[in-house]
Specification:
- By secondary structure, the chain is α/β, with parallel strands linked by helices.
- It folds into two domains: about 120 residues, Arc Repressor Mutant, subunit A; about 260 residues, tm_1862 like domain (pyruvate-formate lyase- activating enzyme, Alpha-Beta Horseshoe), CATH 3.80.30.
- Helix content is about 45%, strand content about 20%.
- The chain is built from 16 helices and 18 strands.
- The chain has a nine-stranded mixed sheet with strand order 10-11-9-8-7-6-5-2-12.
- It starts with a helix and ends in a 5-residue tail after the last helix.
- Bound molecules: S-adenosylmethionine and iron/sulfur cluster.
- Iron/sulfur cluster binds next to loops.
């Protein structure tokens, strides 16, 4: 009982700290003609490139990512514009070391995405290319065509439980448990890494159902399994609130860690088989800065968060008129930049204070004194030879903080979805 009360208090404290920090630091304003994300690139740096494909065959009610219902003609025009934006990036002689193609459903127009990936490889000579997909675009022939182009294919499954799939409106659209298993089995081991996305803490999800999901994913022998906690925000709360909230988040998280204990933890919700080279799932987690191209793409450069136009016509217009598609930004101060870097790095399991000082000449204690005191006092981390490591409890807490952070990002997305800034 006392432990429960302590946990509730800790959870409330974390939530209010993250919420306050987010609200006070993320102030989205319209960009001016002088703003240009490419002017914030450093010639000596190598970046992660994020590319957004905002199309889906069906719009799932729980998902708050930026997407439109697929329209073939619109997609052809979009990919053409996207390749134009990729060439603009190249004109700045930017070095790219990895690429994450997310959506939406990036494989929705096979011809166009392959043409785009080929261009990316030609211009940037990158091997680390990760691509998301829904389960409807993973035919054997398609995946074979991605050989040599895509290193990691991430398939959104969410759950293999038919009752849950029905609730998520995915059963009729993407197939039942048997169909999902058959589709994935058919394409494993073609690309270096196949990842399966699952969600935990779903409405009515039981321990037995989650256990079964994880066992199925393990038996599929995919190289990577990602387990997101269900994230809710103002953008999907109408759907999520129709169901009774699942109170088992913490218990489920520890269950996942236990079932996947033989896997390597890339970050708090991504697990890889030890044998494969690690490609990190969360594009923010091991890169401090990143460039986002495509409609709705986010970039984080020199302490600025830039947002590309959500509206496809405006995206095209801006690209042709000023070669940059940003419409809004938020600028962070030094402490906020340090906080964000600390959060993202610790999310992978540890933070090397000494290395951080040597690389950036920043004394973490000076900027995050209160935060460090608190997380040590609450036993979320322990320190060994200038490195902070997450404890078991800390791993769960970081999962909750990161999920809160993403949910808060929906507040930003809501501004563009509602058309307040186009
Ligand atoms: C942008 S989606 C693309 C996946 C692909 N379009 C699909 O539907 O299979 C990437 C992943 O985000 C996760 N996701 C989406 N909405 C979520 C939510 N509300 N809470 C937790 N995870 C979510 C899902 O696991 C999904 O596979
Ligand atoms: S979960 Fe995937 S298919 Fe469903 S709306 Fe989101 S991006 Fe589209």
């Amino acid at each position: 009982m006392i432990n429960n009360i302590k946990d509730v208090l800790i959870n409330n404290l974390i939530n209010s700290t993250v919420n306050k920090a987010f609200d006070s630091s993320v102030k989205i304003i319209k960009t001016s003609k002088e703003d240009n994300k490419f002017n914030h690139l450093n010639k000596d740096a190598s970046y992660l490139l994020y590319i957004h494909i905002p199309f889906c065959d069906n719009l799932c009610p729980f998902c708050t990512f930026h997407k439109y219902k697929y329209d073939h003609k619109k997609s052809i025009k979009y990919f053409k514009n996207l390749r134009k934006e990729i060439r603009v990036l190249k004109s700045y002689n930017t070095k790219i070391d990895s690429i994450y193609i997310g959506g939406g459903s990036p494989l929705i127009n096979e011809v166009e995405i392959i043409k785009t990936i080929k261009l990316l490889k030609e211009l940037f000579d990158v091997d680390d290319i990760s691509c998301e997909t829904d389960p409807n675009h993973i035919e054997l022939e398609t995946v074979k065509k991605l050989k040599g182009l895509v290193k990691r294919l991430s398939i959104g499954v969410q759950s293999f439980d038919n009752e849950i799939l029905k609730k998520l409106s995915r059963y009729d659209r993407f197939g039942n448990d048997k169909e999902l298993i058959r589709k994935i089995k058919n394409i494993t081991r073609i690309l270096p890494i196949t990842n399966v996305d699952l969600i935990f803490n779903l409405p009515n999800q039981t321990e037995a159902s989650l256990r079964k999901d994880l066992e199925i994913a393990k038996n599929l022998e995919v190289e990577q399994i990602t387990t997101y906690p269900l994230m809710s925000s103002t953008l999907n709360s109408k759907f999520i609130n129709r169901f009774q909230a699942n109170q088992n988040k913490e218990k489920f998280y520890y269950l996942i860690c236990d079932i996947l204990k033989d896997y390597h933890m890339n970050n708090m919700w991504s697990f890889s088989k030890e044998c494969v080279e690690i490609l990190n799932d969360e594009y923010v987690s091991n890169h401090n800065e990143y460039i986002g191209l495509g409609s709705g793409g986010f970039s984080y450069l020199e302490g600025n968060l830039f947002v590309n136009s959500y509206d496809l016509d405006n995206y095209e217009k801006l690209l042709n008129k000023r070669k940059d598609t940003i419409i809004a930004k938020s600028t962070f101060n030094k402490k906020e930049v340090i906080q964000y870097y600390f959060l993202c790095t610790l999310f992978s399991g540890s933070f090397n204070i000494k290395k951080y000082y040597e690389t950036f000449n920043i004394d973490l204690e000076k900027y995050l004194k209160k935060e460090l005191f608190l997380i040590k006092k609450l036993d979320f981390v322990y320190e060994k030879e200038d490195v902070l490591y997450l404890t078991k409890k800390g791993q769960y807490v970081l999962t909750v903080i990161m999920a809160n952070f993403y949910s808060k990002m929906d507040k930003v997305r809501a501004i563009f979805k509602s058309g307040q800034i186009v």
